[in-house]
Q: What sequence folds into this?
């Protein structure tokens, strides 16, 4: 059984590096392709897909590689019935670690590119079609993760999750933030990947709604979770439950 502090370190580090990849590649894309937004998005997407896949492979065996409060909350919800997964106490600790890591990752990316450590984003993302995009992006992410879990195919989670996020960058209007912690972190950088602080609450609400829809889809496709059935996401990880 891996102690909770080590799992929290993995979640903090993983979320921090994920946001560093997203924000840092966004800044680099703006520098390399200043007049082509489509190319900037492509560059940002490729870095995010590769970075996320590697982080899941490396840190998944320690903490499950959630890096996302919605994923952690979904695992906790499933665990209420099955008895496997995060406890309420662990969920709270995961959320703090993920959010702190996301903020730290944005600050690190800013520093690496010689920008102010905190430069509040000015890109407004407040519109109903963007919120709908976040609902779709997050619902799909939860569906992908827990469908793999229920099917016993978590070994392909690094490819499945990273691949879905990469695709959702392009087929959703919001470019698929799909993560409350990452959304908060991206508010700390006025760059290609940034989101104005005033736009954060709407995105977070949409992401939470998407998480609920995703769990409903999983239940509809695979039935209700059974007692004792493993439901750790994104990858199996040792938790404190007996």
A:
């Amino acid at each position: 059984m891996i102690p909770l502090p080590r799992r929290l370190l993995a979640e903090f580090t993983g979320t921090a590096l994920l946001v560093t990849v997203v924000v840092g590649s966004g800044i680099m894309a703006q520098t390399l392709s200043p007049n082509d937004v489509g190319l900037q998005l492509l560059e940002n997407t490729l870095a995010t897909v590769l970075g996320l896949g590697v982080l899941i492979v490396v840190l998944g065996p320690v903490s499950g590689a959630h890096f996302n409060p919605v994923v952690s909350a979904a695992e906790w919800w499933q665990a209420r019935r099955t008895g496997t997964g995060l406890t309420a106490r662990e969920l709270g600790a995961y959320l703090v670690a993920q959010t702190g890591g996301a903020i730290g990752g944005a600050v690190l990316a800013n520093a690496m590119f010689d920008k102010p450590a905190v430069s509040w984003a000015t890109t407004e993302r407040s519109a109903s079609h963007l919120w709908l995009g976040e609902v779709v992006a997050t619902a799909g992410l939860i569906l992908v993760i827990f469908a793999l879990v229920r099917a016993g195919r978590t070994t392909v989670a690094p490819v499945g999750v990273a691949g879905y996020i990469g695709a959702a960058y392009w087929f959703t209007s919001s470019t698929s933030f799909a993560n409350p912690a990452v959304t908060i972190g991206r508010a700390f950088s006025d760059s290609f990947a940034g989101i104005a602080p005033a736009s954060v609450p709407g995105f977070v609400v949409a992401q939470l709604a998407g998480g609920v829809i995703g769990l409903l889809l999983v239940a509809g496709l695979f039935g209700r979770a059974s007692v004792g059935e493993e439901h750790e996401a994104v990858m199996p990880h040792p938790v404190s439950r007996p």
Helices lie at 4-32, 37-63, 69-82, 88-112, 128-150, 157-171, 180-186, 200-222. The first helix runs from residue 4 to 32.
